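Archive entry. Fields below.
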Amino acid sequence: MATQVLMPALSPTMTEGKIAKWMKSEGDNVESGDVLCEIETDKATMEVEAVDEGILGKILVSEGTENVAVNTPIAVLVEEGESADDVADAPAPAAAAAAPSEDTKSDAAPKEEAASAPAQPKSDPAPEPEYDGPMKTQTVREALRDAMAEEMRREERVFLMGEEVAEYQGAYKISQGLLDEFGAKRVIDTPITEQGFAGLGVGAAFHGLKPIVEFMTFNFAMQAIDQIINSAAKTLYMSGGQMGCPIVFRGPNGAAARVAAQHSQCYASWYANCPGMKVVAPWSASDAKGLLKSAIRDPNPVIFLENEILYGQSFELPDDDDFTLPIGKAKVERKGADVTIVAYSIAVGIAMEAAEKLAEEGIDAEVINLRTIRPMDTATIIESVKKTNRLVSVGEGWPTCGIGSEVSSIAMEQAFDYLDAPPVRVAGVDVPMPYAANLEKLALPKAPQVIEAAKSVCYV
Amino acid sequence: MARASKSGASSKSAAKSTSRSKSKTAAKKPEVTGEQLLSYYRDMLMIRRFEEKAGQLYGMGLIGGFCHLYIGQEAVVVGMTQAGTSDDSVITSYRDHGHMLACGMDPKGVMAELTGRRGGYSKGKGGSMHMFSREKNFFGGHGIVGAQVPLGTGLAFGHKYSEDGGVCHTYMGDGAVNQGQIYESFNMASLWKLPVVYVIENNKYGMGTSVERASSNVELHERGAAHDIPGMQVNGMDVIDVLEKGGKALDHARSGKGPYILEMKTYRYRGHSMSDPAKYRSKEEVQKMRKESDPIDNLRHTILEAGHSNEDEMKDIDKEIKSIVTAAAEFAQQSPEPDESELFTDVFLEASA
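PREDICTED_STRUCTURE:
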């Protein structure tokens, strides 16, 4: 049976090309893999190989012809005994017609693309469980360690790896005692090789384990960010839902004290920009423990942004091994009526301090601890803004494209008519972190700036 | 062309013609029967014909974006797969269609992913470079040069941690061996004695740059020397050489001695991707390889010479492969595009309580 040879597309962008030269003549025998002709594309001259075998019955487009559209029949292959005159009836392999779709509508009217796009499903995080059991006081450091230890006792597949997590007991002593309890199989000192061990952790998660990967600080995770984004966050989607990646990347994030630009960056907005990943930023010991346990149990990759300054701070938290907090749910740390202050991580403390001082001046601030940056609990923010009509965001990261920018956008998109003043961002100063003590102090947000911002949106 | 599967279940449409039983332990010195030679021939031919068809569909605009064909390198993945066991895992970069077929994945599902349809392995959301099959222990299909190597090392970590007896076959190209993360992986794999075989598919060119122009030391099997990882050069155009040396390397890794490096000297006949003008090598070079070293032609010759089969039987195999590939291409064109609601699925897994 005769077969048509079609003008091929030879690059992702080619729509037409020139038949530069026929390498076979009519009547020639053609085997699969033989070069039929040369085609000039928008990028280069390329050879076209035969896929089917037969005899070149007829050349339909002669040498030197320009602007031949992709999928135009350019020749016909016939079988022994067939005449080139049969070519009129030669079937073409199906050209790149529109894919069949279950949508049977046949109207040719242009579609309204935006209108036809499906709406993004809204996730509704579980509410925070009521707890009225016994409480205890712990540092954030102890809470993080207990969260890991409890989850490692609960599930054999959970293991911890990172630099100095085992014999040194953790560069910041977060993993103190874990090597003794769980042994070297499950508490693993890695070489200084962030990209390598981040990728190794992702591979282990694909295999079915549940790694906790500690970065000594998130500054060093920039070396590993390809593995975190491209391998951990995107693979579930790219695999059509087959390749879950249950992994936690955790460690201190943001400014510590006097360690200068390369060791003092907040990565919240970097990771929060990427779908496929959850981003958690705890403030209190209760946040740290409840959220880290949920992160370890979560079947998705979770970025867990801790803060070195907070490690030594003590808080009250439930005295219960089963206590967890839902990822994706913010907490109203202080109820108020006059202005909403949205903060995350160490900035929650700054917001609380500012709220106390504002109260002395007669301004009743509501403080929202985001707890999770992605997926962000927009409902809690909007509900609060509808009540207070004023919004201030606080975070240590740089202001440009930062978390505060996102919070402001959400309020303006979803509660514009409720706002009595433009939202204000309080953020880190837009410079690399300086070393000098006085300059470093100036670069980070403090309570007086939050107070000033709150007063400005209240027009006080 | 599946490896022996744990359940004994065969792969879907392809399996009818290619399923076979296979012992779980790799032979040290393979004594290869005529029947086995025929099955390797069939497996390699399947990849060759599949890739030719993919090239054709690309030319027709049915496959978009990037498409990297494996034509010429078939002996590597067929030999390694046959040397392995059903406990092993496989991971590679983006020249990956051959690896999927060798793992026993259904040609229909692979082709439908190339055309971006809902019947594809990733429901049309991954494309040529991103396909996976948990069932067949195939872990992708990764688009970033070298990134699959730490991942494969992690799969090996998983094999060791869970003591499941598996070895990870971690493939990379000659271009990838100059990425830093390869050596980070080599170091950890050797330090922790992980069961991984690193298979370097040296097809002489990383895109358009020859190994000589990219690597200070072109003996790529020696790249593990700094980490005490043994390496071996293999004739990647000869499935029997791959089978024999692959078996040795896999035995080494499986027995707890740590990683092994195999440098497969191979060749890709087609361009790096579909839009490769091939100005960096001569036509004569390509023709010479095709004429003298083709793994499929040479094996066919061996089979006929030894009287394991005859021309008629070989023609029947050709026909049968062609019909499987044609069916895959038809399926790939008839399967609908993914439903629009799929845009928002598979971003997260639901947390179980």
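CURATOR_NOTE: Chain A has three domains: 3-88, 135-318, 331-457.
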